[in-house]
Structure formats: C-alpha cells, structure tokens
Design goal:
The chain is 37% helix and 15% strand. The protein is α/β, with parallel strands linked by helices. A hairpin with a 2-residue loop joins strand 6 (217-218) and strand 7 (221-222).
Length: 418
C-alpha cells in the first residue's frame, strides 16, 4: 500500500515552512541563459517542506531534472515560517526567487499584483494541459483565463470510518448520502464515542456551504449569510446541538480531527490524506476504511488543497525557469515526485500509472479531485475566511443562532473589505 503525506499547510490548515530563494540577484548565471558553451545557468526555487522526507524526495527530483538538464543548476533554501509575508517582501524588493510555490488560497491576491509571470506562451500542445484535474488547474487562472501556475500536487478530503465500530453497530459499510451519515452517527454515538467528528472551519465546509445553491463569496464580497448557505450548514450544527451525535476535536481533548478519530472519540470524520500516515505510524491497530464524502442533495462534493509552481515575472532566467516548471509538472517529473508517496498527483494519467486510482485507501481521495471545490477564490478570501471562522464556531457550540452569527460575520467581513 502506498503512503501519501500531505505536503501543504494551506492557510487553514496547511501553510507551513518554506523554501525561499536567494533571489535573482543572488543566483547569477555564469554565462548567458541560452549559452551553448557548456556553462551553467543558476536558478532559485522557493517552496516549503513539511518533513525531512519531503526535502529528501524534492532533492532527488531536482537531481533528476539537473541530470537531464546539465546546463541548469537549481538552488533551494528554506525560510522557517511566515511564507507569504517573506515572499512578498522579497518579490517587492527585487530579491525574489525565479520559481516558487504558490498556494491556491493565496494565488488570486498575488497574481493581482503582477509579480507572477503568465505561462500561456510557454506551454506547448505536447504538455497536455487536459491531463490535469481541471478544478486544480483553474485555481491558478486569472480573470482573463490566463494560466499563472501549474499545480504540482494536491490533497482532498474523504470520509474515514472505524470498521470495527460500524460492524458492532450493524453496518456493513460507510454511508453513501448525508442522510445515511446522520442516521449512522446516531447509532454509533455512545458515552465515549461521537458518531461524527467535525473540524468546524470554512476550508473543510465550503463545498457543503454551497450545496444548496448559495455562495460563500460573490463578486469578491462575503455572502455566506445567504439563507441558502445557512440552510446547507444547519445540519452540521444540529448534529451537535440537537441530536448530540457530533463534536469538534477540542471537546474531547484532541488537538485535531485525525487524533479524535484515532482515539475512538469519533466513529467517522471528514479528513485529508495526510491523516493516513498519522494513523499508520501512530495508531496501527485502528481498523479503518476510507470512502468518498457522502453525497449532498444527490451531488458529490469535497475540498481540494493545491499548490502550484509559478515563475517570478522579474526573473531574468525565464527560459531556464520554465524548463524547471515544465519538468516538475510534466508527466515524468510528477511521476518521479509523487511516486515517493508524499503527495497526490494533479495529472490523471500519473495517478493511473502509479496505481493510486484503484487503491482502496487512496482511491477516494483521487476520485475527489475531479469534482472538488478548490480552497481558493478571489483576493478577499483570507478576510472572508477569518470572519466566517470567528462566528461559525459559536453557532456550532450552541452559543448563537447560525443565521444570526453568519450574517453578523458577513457584515463585518464586508466592512473590512471596503
């Protein structure tokens, strides 16, 4: 069984440490970029690493690129935290890297500044853009459909369920619909276990919030106070406050959803593929399965978190920079990177080649990439997300009416935006 580890720390969740490049001035080529005299063009790469293993496999993938491109040398260095703050400062100061990671959550805002190079003129037909899962590729398009980044990897959400607890309650498999989940959660709830664990943040719930036709963001303004959004999220709140079948991790002394599930304090939980190595390494005795998120109103949905490689518009090594991006997000480079087991591929063909698609544990995560709501929107999503979180948790904990809480949060967010 392959092991996939989450590479991102996306906003919500997920932005971690970062590789910050020495910048264009710090990595001068020893000759002209297109030199044919055997000298080397040096370029810089900035990203983040969540573990020593990830750094190891990135180094190996870059080594493969350099082996095939002996006229290019890639330099990688790391900034421990505050990735976007540090990156923006370096880009504005003219000391930015040639190529860098860009989270979909942050992409619209950075693209708007003009510091990211459009990639359309570099992309050939042979590159096969259609092979990418389109929701992930679309997260890095500008308003004019220009492509500014190519998704290097992704993670999605799926339903983890405790096989032993389900069997004890008389169920032979996971729920297929939200109604079935609610019914099963009631049967699975005991004095020590909740039927369903909830991580109550917008990054996990955005697809559900929009399942009744409402929108969390409209014209770059908060719109999650819409009755359609409130109605879509009310069942989650009701499971805790009326049915007593759901809780968040902190209510049972857990730091996160994976731990809540692993300790048997939730029989089912919606989590990302980063939970798999956590369970396998720390709780190997937990007998769990993974399924796609139950349908809501007959429609499939989940969240996807993705990061792209982008090029610094101010780079003076654009041809070499593109060759790096082309390799890392091409079929060969992506297969080399994701075969390590650290990430999910963003190309459908690579997922099939590596046998991820039909894997009983990882298959549900791969399936979700084709219909997922990507954790991204317009430039104001960070403000909107912050204000949603401030009030949704109070409603989830039964302290406020959900509709009133979200309407107040929407008003505050839009005042901040204006």
């Amino acid at each position: 069984m392959k092991k996939w580890f989450m590479t991102m720390g996306i906003s919500t969740v997920l932005l971690g440490s970062v590789l910050a490049g020495c910048g264009n001035n710090g990595g001068e080529s020893t000759s002209g970029e297109n030199s044919n005299d055997g000298e080397v063009t040096q370029i810089t790469l900035t990203g983040w690493q969540s573990s020593p293993q990830e750094q190891k496999y990135l180094d190996e993938t870059i080594a493969l690129f350099e082996e095939q491109n002996p006229d290019i040398e890639v330099t990688i260095s790391t900034i421990p935290d505050s990735y976007m703050d540090v990156l923006r400062t370096r880009l504005i100061g003219g000391d930015g890297p040639d190529v860098f990671y860009l989270d979909a959550f942050e992409a619209p805002g950075l693209i708007e500044t003009g510091v990211v190079e459009p990639l359309d003129e570099y992309i050939s037909e042979d590159f096969d853009l259609d092979d990418f899962e389109q929701p992930l590729l679309d997260a890095f398009r500008g308003d004019d459909e220009t492509i500014y980044g190519l998704p290097k990897d992704t993670s999605t959400l799926a339903l983890f369920y405790n096989k032993d607890l389900l069997e004890e309650a008389g169920f032979d498999g996971p729920p297929a619909t939200w109604e079935e989940l609610e019914e099963m959660a009631e049967a699975l709830t005991t004095d020590s276990t909740y039927g369903y664990g909830v991580v109550p943040d917008l990054a996990r719930l955005m697809f559900m919030a929009e399942s009744n036709g409402g929108q969390v963001v409209t014209d770059n303004q908060a719109s999650f106070g819409d009755p359609a959004v409130v109605e879509a999220l009310q069942p989650v709140v009701d499971m805790r406050n009326e049915a007593g079948t759901a809780a968040e991790p902190s209510e049972v002394g857990s730091d996160n959803g994976g731990e809540m599930f692993a300790l048997g304090r939730a029989a089912m939980i919606m989590e990302g593929n980063w939970t798999i190595p956590f369970l396998d390494e720390n709780f190997p005795d937990v007998n769990y399965g993974v399924a796609e998120i139950p349908t809501i109103n007959g429609e499939q949905g989940t969240m996807a978190f993705t990061v792209s490689y982008v090029m610094n518009a101010a780079s003076d090594k654009k041809e070499a920079s593109w060759r790096l991006i082309e390799f890392l997000t091409g079929k060969e480079g992506m297969e080399a990177w994701t075969a390590s087991g650290l990430t999910l591929p963003t190309r459908a063909s690579v997922a099939e080649t590596l046998d991820y698609t039909d894997d009983e544990i990882y298959g549900p995560f791969v399936a979700g990439t084709s219909y997922a709501t990507v954790w991204s929107d317009d430039t104001n999503l960070p403000i909107i997300n912050n204000n949603f979180g401030n009030q949704f948790i109070s409603a989830f904990l039964g302290q406020r009416d959900l509709g009133e809480a979200l309407k107040e949060a929407e008003d505050v967010a839009n005042r901040e935006i204006q």
